[in-house]
Design goal:
The protein has helices at residues 10-17, 108-113, 159-162, 273-276, 302-306; strands at 47-49, 67-68, 80-82, 87-90, 93-100, 118-125, 132-139, 146-152, 168-178, 189-198, 217-221, 231-237, 241-246, 249-255, 264-270, 286-298. The chain has 5 helices and 16 strands. It is mostly beta strands. It has one domain (52-306): Sandwich (Jelly Rolls).
């Protein structure tokens, strides 16, 4: 298991100590036997460790009991396809790779549909959760590809909600970063954003109608190169507010006005053609590395959220 300690900043501890929930202490509930030691919860005993949504990625393969190595509801954003072959676990890290499609790998159907240039990768948690502290230690790939850590609910198990008007699919982006962005101004920039898509909803295809959220996100100019080394990215999500952190320092906070339903935990790498353009083929293949993801749920809050 990874033995890297969590070292929250003084600012981190002070702000939560005086917050509305009065987080105190530093010990979380016991984890499952899969964790030799329970990772310390930086927000105190108002939270409990969620081993079913946490992973040190120390095995020889992705834990299929916790994760999908594809998205059952989403093939990918054109011109790229998610590929299970681009997901790996090795040397204590989850590895999500973006690569060029070889001509012989492009079949007739995908050519016609527009999925004909890149392979990319995604993992999605099997379980959902509402409210908690979510932290991942990541290193971005050195390419013009979006590396992301996010929470969302695609309503895959609720076609009566997903494909009719009157509902929303919600998303909390903990981290979006490009290790080698096409725009110089985006170098070392970390994004965190909220999205609320009106139904009917189909990922990257029918999702253009959004709720116009006030104060919906941030751009943080990091004092480091996200592709040069690993750094910690986190979000604290409670019924009253959402806070983002980079290496233990708070970088953004907003009121939680809508985000109260359980969401999946997701990591992926994507070609964001409409945002940052395409990567330089010479930079591929490139890999987004995740050392660990650790999740603590807010006690007594998930039951209320599940009823919403």
């Amino acid at each position: 298991m990874s033995s890297r300690p969590f070292a929250p900043s003084r600012l981190f501890v002070r702000r939560f100590a005086v917050g509305a929930l009065l987080f105190v202490g530093a010990v979380c509930s016991p984890s499952s036997a899969l964790f030799a030691e329970t990772p310390v919860c930086p927000l105190g005993d108002a939270f409990e460790f969620a081993p079913e949504l946490s992973d040190e990625f120390d095995g020889a393969a992705l834990d299929a009991e916790k994760w999908f190595d594809f998205n059952p509801a989403w093939r990918g954003r054109k011109p790229a396809l998610f590929s299970r072959q681009n997901v790996a676990v090795a040397d204590g890290t989850l590895r999500l790779t973006a690569s060029l499609m070889k001509p012989e790998e492009v079949d007739v159907e995908n050519k016609v549909r527009g999925y004909d240039k890149y392979w990319k990768a995604i993992v999605k948690s099997r379980e959902k959760i509402a409210y908690g502290y979510f932290e991942a230690r990541c290193q971005a790939m050195r390419a013009n590809v979006c590396n992301a850590f996010w929470l969302y609910d695609p309503h895959s198990d609720r076609p009566d909600v997903k494909y009719v008007e009157g509902e929303f699919s919600e998303e909390i982006d903990v981290l979006e970063v490009f290790g080698k962005p096409s725009e110089p101004s985006a170098q070392n920039v970390v994004w965190g954003t909220l999205h609320r898509y009106a139904t009917p909803y189909l990922e990257s295809i029918v999702n253009k109608k959004k709720d116009k959220l006030a104060n919906k996100g941030f751009k943080f100019k990091a004092p480091f190169d996200p592709a040069a080394d690993f750094h910690r990215y986190a979000v604290a999500w409670t019924p009253t507010e959402i806070r983002w952190f980079v290496d233990g320092e708070e970088v953004f906070v907003r009121e939680n006005d809508f985000f109260h339903r359980p969401l999946h935990v997701v990591f992926d790498c994507e070609i964001m053609f409409d945002w940052m353009g395409e990567p330089d083929p010479a930079d591929l293949p490139a890999t987004f590395n995740v050392d660990y993801v650790r999740v603590w749920r807010l006690k007594d809050a998930n039951a209320a959220a599940a009823k919403r």
